[in-house]
Design goal:
By secondary structure, the chain is α/β, with parallel strands linked by helices. The chain has one domain: Vaccinia Virus protein VP39 (Rossmann fold). The chain is 42% helix and 17% strand. The chain is built from eleven helices and seven strands. It has a seven-stranded mixed beta sheet. Strand 4, helix 8 and strand 5 form a beta-alpha-beta unit. The longest helix has 20 residues. It is globular and about 50 Å long.
Length: 284
């Protein structure tokens, strides 16, 4: 698989195309867990090529589908609980403002690199989002610029939900801590939804997706502390959803992994165990 992965994945943006194919496949099911009629258009021929070239790529499909389902559920629940803004950092090719049933009064903000936003806007130019949508072209490694953005968004929201879906794994521990502190500094930023992997899962992904490192986007973040890592930046875990158990519950887990899903849940330190989760963090 390594040789094919190296040929298929050229940069971090290619992973957005790859994940979009998974959403497109779910959309094509008779009874999909969510509908995303825009995913195949966004993935394009490049996304199809990546999916074809990765012989065993389908084995990665179930955690991405489980992650999407959990993020959707958290977004819906937080809106019910009064969230008036959703801020999606490194939004990639996410289409939630278009595909989810959202109140028109909701403010949705997507932040990503200019090239990604330009591509996405070109593909979706004829579509209408369900809520108020703002896109911000910004490199999140520009600390001063992101702090300025966060302060502006906090000033016009009462209760904001932050999303970093598929972002943190590319950052160092120090970068994640700094981002967490910048978010916690904003009074209206109440909740932060992340996906998280253990050191064991990080090592597995590094071994299987080495092409990302060659393309300049190595996988870095899999804290041994688990969700407790974020306590140091002002956040604590309010909800932790194992990807294994989530996938089993939605009937997307491969047969060979179903026995593992019967093991007791564990949300603390995972060590070498390949473990991934979606977590909702709340301000301490």
């Amino acid at each position: 698989m390594a040789n094919r992965a190296e040929a298929a994945l050229r940069n971090i943006s290619d992973t957005a195309l790859w994940v979009a194919i998974y959403r497109a496949r779910e959309n094509d099911r008779v009874n999909p867990l969510f509908r995303d009629p825009f995913a195949r258009r966004l993935a394009g021929e490049r996304g199809e090529q990546i999916a074809r070239e990765l012989e065993q790529g389908q084995r990665y499909e179930w955690p991405y589908i489980a992650r999407t389902v959990r993020f959707d559920q958290i977004v819906n629940e937080q809106i019910k609980q009064g969230a008036d803004m959703v801020i999606n950092l490194a939004a990639g090719l996410d289409t939630r403002p278009y595909r989810m049933e959202l109140p028109a009064s909701l403010k949705w903000v997507e932040v990503d690199l200019p090239a990604m936003i330009d591509y996405k806007e070109a593909i979706l130019s004829g579509e209408q989002p369900r809520c108020s949508l703002e896109r911000v072209r910004l490199d999140l490694t520009n600390v001063a610029a992101r702090q300025e953005l966060f302060a502006r968004l906090s000033s016009v929201s009462r209760k904001a939900l932050i999303m970093t879906e598929g972002l943190l794994v590319y950052l160092t521990r120090d970068e994640v801590t700094a981002l967490g502190r910048d978010l916690a500094a904003q009074a209206s930023f109440h909740d932060w939804t992340i996906d998280l992997c253990s050191p064991g899962l990080l090592k597995l992904l590094q071994d299987n997706l080495g092409a990302l490192e060659k393309a300049g986007s190595p996988l870095k973040f899999g804290p041994e502390e688990g969700p407790d890592f974020f306590n140091g930046s002002g956040w604590k875990a309010a909800e932790v959803y194992s990807m294994l158990k989530t996938a089993a519950g939605i009937k997307r887990l491969p047969l060979g992994l179903r026995l593992l899903a019967l093991l007791p849940e564990s949300n603390g330190r995972q060590g070498s165990r390949p473990w991934g989760a979606v977590c909702r963090l709340t301000r301490m």
